[in-house]
Amino acid sequence: APLLALSGVGKRFGNQVTALEGLDMEVRRGEFLSLLGPSGCGKSTALRLIAGLAEPTSGRIDFNGEHPGKAASPHPSVGFVFQEPTLMPWASVFGNVHLPLKLAGTSRREAEPAIMQALELVGLEAFRDAYPRELSGGMKMRVSIARALVTKPRLLLMDEPFAALDEITRFKLNNDLLQVWRQLNCTIVFVTHSVFESVYLSTRILVFRARPGRVAAELAIDPSLERD
Ligand code: ADP
Ligand code: ADP
Question: Signal peptide: which range, if any (predicted)?
Fold first, then answer.
């Protein structure tokens, strides 16, 4: 069974904007899935619905039989990375990565192994005591990825995470993200409007069309990498 399935999902904002209509898609265990399409075709909305950050107006979303936002597991089952790293400026790198575990009631000391493991994954263990203002854009994004991974989520959702970075930093992060994905054996859904990025990173691509947003085409890039 897929990790996650959306069936006939629609999302309207007011009665003007139909962001999504009749969206059918599934996310398979272990895949690196990209959602590709022009601005405004509903990719971010689809990601937010999957994350449980918003409710669909119609259709259903099944996540291992339950809604991701309501999954009763010791760790939040979904990690989310936004385009903006949204770090707390008053907290160190360590403190920022601690946050999701802190909210779950885990102390700094208890959380330290998980935090350091997440920082190692993104190559920032030496920067644990640095503050966000001391970091480059690429490094801030790495902290944001570590923060999303520290709870060991079943699913990592990324909404145009590298769109604001320069080309070289972006390419480095593409490669490092692939390493993280292989190392953790995790499932990633990655929103982008870059054809290059989607082809370079993914095992499978869903191409979205706009007005209303839905999947127009599917490309299997490397099905051998899908673990079912
Ligand atoms: P994409 O991520 O592909 O750029 P979005 O999912 O952000 O597309 O947006 C899809 C459509 O829904 C757009 O027309 C956008 O303006 C609209 N939209 C997204 N969020 C909201 C919102 N909170 N309120 C009203 N309209 C929205
Ligand atoms: P990225 O490609 O991750 O954005 P940069 O290209 O900006 O990183 O930085 C290149 C290297 O410079 C980094 O890998 C890091 O080792 C070092 N560096 C960047 N910012 C700092 C800092 N505030 N203090 C020390 N070293 C830094």
Answer: none
